[in-house]
């Protein structure tokens, strides 16, 4: 068992609170992702797991064993380094062997472990090649093999693919997810890319200034963000968040430019959140602008971004700007009038301090 537990862990650097009272459990075999903006404490958490830093307060357990005073070597957690750099002058095989040769493991044992890990990662047929002759995905597998050949309890990755170009990143993250599932080992993964976090993780922990703001499965956090902070971090285009007031018929946001006919709207909501894909955009029927508003409130199309499979439409509704995500390539032009609306069930409500409110 290699579950990893933090109990109220705090770590300071001088006056900087790098990790603030963090509590979480990474389950055995889980692909667990820390996601947050730069300087939110992601790397510090990894260093605390590795044992390169010690908590000022709180306790860390690996596989049920308290490890605050256990050395990094004894924790047996492997870091797969930032750029997955392989030694270019060595074959893939020698790269994988390296950590064992360095530890003076007997040759027969090295061969056995390399064969095991190569079989698990499906790289037996490329071990003779130098890194320059491997594809991005193959290099990834070899770098992971090199980390896993030590047979660690868990492995950690700190933004491992941020240096790759967009296409290679997409390919590599699919690969990573597949590898982790096949290996069945605990993986803690750090990224500052929301799409990457959503796509790879079993669960995500969202960080802000060293504090964990929410932990959950990607879809759970996306559908029920605990605050406007979390809501803004996940999803592209970002959730539309608008000042709102409660009226007799429901919520009015952005000075009446959107109305949500929701009698169940919480009385203390001060903002509403609308995911771009939840905004309905219909033609504004009456040319003279005297539509009865049944299709929604009027908005003017500010700009249209056709992205092939879907289209992002930026709308000017009164003083507010909203972004809607539409399927395909609808016939919508800049400056056209449209009617916008949103199902009450799709609306997110937030209170004074930015916390989500239940309907
Ligand atoms: P992230 O990986 O999310 O970018 P870090 O864990 O690197 O965040 O940093 C969290 C906070 O701790 C930041 O404010 C950073 O400046 C500070 N910090 C990190 N490492 C050190 C260090 N060795 N000395 C001083 N401050 C540090
Ligand atoms: Mg970092």
From TrEMBL:
Which key words are in the record?
ATP-binding, Nucleotide-binding, Transport
InterPro entries from the UniProt entry: AAA+_ATPase, ABC_transporter-like_ATP-bd, ABC_transporter-like_CS, ABC_transpr_MalK/UgpC-like, Mo/tungstate-bd_C_term_dom, NA-bd_OB-fold, P-loop_NTPase, Transp-assoc_OB_typ2
* Top-rank taxon: Bacteria
Q: Which family does it belong to?
A: Belongs to the ABC transporter superfamily.
Q: Which PANTHER family match?
A: MALTODEXTRIN IMPORT ATP-BINDING PROTEIN MSMX, OSMOPROTECTIVE COMPOUNDS UPTAKE ATP-BINDING PROTEIN GGTA
Q: What is the source species?
A: Mesorhizobium ventifaucium
Q: Which residue range or ranges hold the ABC transporter domain?
A: 4-234
A Pfam family that the UniProt record links to this protein: ABC_tran
Name of protein: Sn-glycerol-3-phosphate import ATP-binding protein UgpC
* MF annotations from Gene Ontology: ATP binding
């Amino acid at each position: 068992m290699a579950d990893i537990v933090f109990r109220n862990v705090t770590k300071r650097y001088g006056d900087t609170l790098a990790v603030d009272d963090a509590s979480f459990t990474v389950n055995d075999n889980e692909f667990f992702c820390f996601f947050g903006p730069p300087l939110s404490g992601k790397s510090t958490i990894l260093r605390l797991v590795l044992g390169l830093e010690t908590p000022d307060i709180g306790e860390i357990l690996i596989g049920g064993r308290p490890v605050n005073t256990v050395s990094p070597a004894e924790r047996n957690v492997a870091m797969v380094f930032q750029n997955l750099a392989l030694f270019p002058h060595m074959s893939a095989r020698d790269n994988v062997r390296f950590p064992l040769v360095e530890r003076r493991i007997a040759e027969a044992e090295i061969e056995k472990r390399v064969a095991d890990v190569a079989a698990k990662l499906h790289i037996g047929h490329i071990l003779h090649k130098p890194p320059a002759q491997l594809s991005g995905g193959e290099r990834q597998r070899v770098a992971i093999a090199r980390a896993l050949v030590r047979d660690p309890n868990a492995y950690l990755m700190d933004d491992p693919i941020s240096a790759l170009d967009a296409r290679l990143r997409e390919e590599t993250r699919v690969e990573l997810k597949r590898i982790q599932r096949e290996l069945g080992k605990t993986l803690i993964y750090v990224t500052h890319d929301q799409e990457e976090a959503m796509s790879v993780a079993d669960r995500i922990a969202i960080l802000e200034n060293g504090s964990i703001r929410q932990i959950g499965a990607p879809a759970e956090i996306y559908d029920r963000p605990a605050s406007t902070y979390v809501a803004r971090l996940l999803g592209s285009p970002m959730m539309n968040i608008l000042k709102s007031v409660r009226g007799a018929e429901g919520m009015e946001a952005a000075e009446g430019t959107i109305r949500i006919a929701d009698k169940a709207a919480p009385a203390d909501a001060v903002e509403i959140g609308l995911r771009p894909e939840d905004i309905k955009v219909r033609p504004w029927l009456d040319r003279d602008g005297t539509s009865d508003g049944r299709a929604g409130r009027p908005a003017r199309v500010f700009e249209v971004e056709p992205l092939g499979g879907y289209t992002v439409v930026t709308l000017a509704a009164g003083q507010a700007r909203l972004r809607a995500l539409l399927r395909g390539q609808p016939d919508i032009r800049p400056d056209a009038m449209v009617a916008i609306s949103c199902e009450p069930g799709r609306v997110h409500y937030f209170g004074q301090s930015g916390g989500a409110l239940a309907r």
